[in-house]
Amino acid sequence: MDLDAEHLADSAFWAAPPEHRHRVFAALREHDPVRWYEPRVSGFSRACTGFWALTRYEDVWNASRNARVYCSGVTIDIEEMPDELGEFYPSMINLDDPEHFQLRRMVSAGFTPKEIAAIEPKLRATARRIVDDVLDRFGDGTEFDLVQELSSKLPLAAIADLMGVPADDQQLLFEWTNAVVSPDDPATGIAGAAEASRALADYALQLGAERRARPAGDLTSALMHAEIDGRRLSTEEFANFFILLASAGNETTRNAITHGVRLLTAHPDQRRAWFDDFDAVAPTAVEEIVRYETLISNMCRVLTEDVLVQGVPIAAGEKVALWYPSANRDRRAFDDPDRFDVRRPLHRQQLGYGGGGPHFCLGANLARAEMTVMFDEIRRRIPDLHVTGEPTRVLSMALNSITHVPASVR
Ligand code: HEM
């Protein structure tokens, strides 16, 4: 493997088959686990700055948990953020303490296991309706687009319900959110993403103001009335948080469901192992889908002081990229890491939701609940659901996304 011939921020690397990327990451973990990549302008529309790539489990885990040194406030992206988009992103994911801690404390009450358990019946009812619809229209075995007809629906409805967005507005939310996370997709472009961010922000400002005036028992109302240390969330802070939730919680969970169906198609023994003992296996199965496919590829941090990682000195002010798909295939952390195993023990914890530091995915419990409910409904009603062709993948170094894949229930 010629590591000099591969650049992790080059579009060619992400256009190659996933197996190639896993071979490169494996070589990096073995031979160059802390490697510097020069700034680059590639087929992606935005330029990337230089960065250090951390590819071993241990290093990604440590960096995630040391937010004082590995900070998020400067940037979390490899690519430079265009000015048009920057104004919409000062939410918790790219804040440091004390602002991060304050904001996270205000919103985290809506995402505890107890809160998620309380909305589970609603998630189940939505999953049932989605499968009813698939059965009605494609029950005879007609091919359909899995992403459009099944995977995309529950994540969107879950966030919309949680935040109190009426059903009639969900389609709009869906379109804006897709555009916000796709500035590199030529069909959207930076202008399209900026326009959608503005539309989402306007929508959220209005929703926040309405709930401030008339609380309605949803998370938006709770947030607009929460008071911590004598401070309330401003409607602008709420709007930024709303955009973050809509973009962080939608496409990731949608991809987890799509990849899950793909994996169960490719591994019928794993489908049997899970579906024959659903409740017992679900906690490890939903974690294994997220480990194996690792839906978010990286997050960056900028160093606040000099450090030594695996003996390599990195200077304060430099950017470090945490490569989750690589960490999740590290043989130092997982036995036989390239095997998809729905019963893989939960220790060690996979890093698809981050390494457990202060920025650990706020929606992890919600994502797990959505996946469990959706696959339970699939098991009961359409247990033979399978993909029938190759997926259309998004060319992205940030997200492991599928836009279309044909499927059938027979
Ligand atoms: C399978 C689905 C999901 C995956 C793989 C995923 C992955 C991630 C990752 C890797 C991070 C960054 C962690 C870090 O920097 O340490 C993150 C942060 C975040 N996620 Fe998720 N996520 C998923 C679903 C969701 C959902 C459903 C929501 C909300 C409805 C959500 C909301 C957030 C938020 C708000 C943050 C920022 C937290 C902070 O900075 O304190 N995510 N997620």
UniProtKB/TrEMBL annotation:
**InterPro entries registered for this protein in UniProt:** Cyt_P450 (IPR001128), Cyt_P450_B (IPR002397), Cyt_P450_sf (IPR036396)
Name the Pfam families on file: p450 (PF00067)
Q: Which UniProt keywords apply?
A: Heme, Iron, Metal-binding, Monooxygenase, Oxidoreductase
TM helices/strands, residue ranges: none
Q: Which GO terms describe its molecular function?
A: cholest-4-en-3-one 26-monooxygenase activity; heme binding; iron ion binding; steroid hydroxylase activity
Residues of the signal sequence? none
- GO BP annotations, alphabetical order: cholesterol catabolic process
Alphabetical list of PANTHER family matching this protein: BIOTIN BIOSYNTHESIS CYTOCHROME P450, P450, PUTATIVE (EUROFUNG)-RELATED
Family that this chain belongs to: Belongs to the cytochrome P450 family.
Q: What is this protein called?
A: Unannotated protein
| Protein source organism | freshwater metagenome
Tell me the lineage of the source organism: unclassified sequences, metagenomes, ecological metagenomes
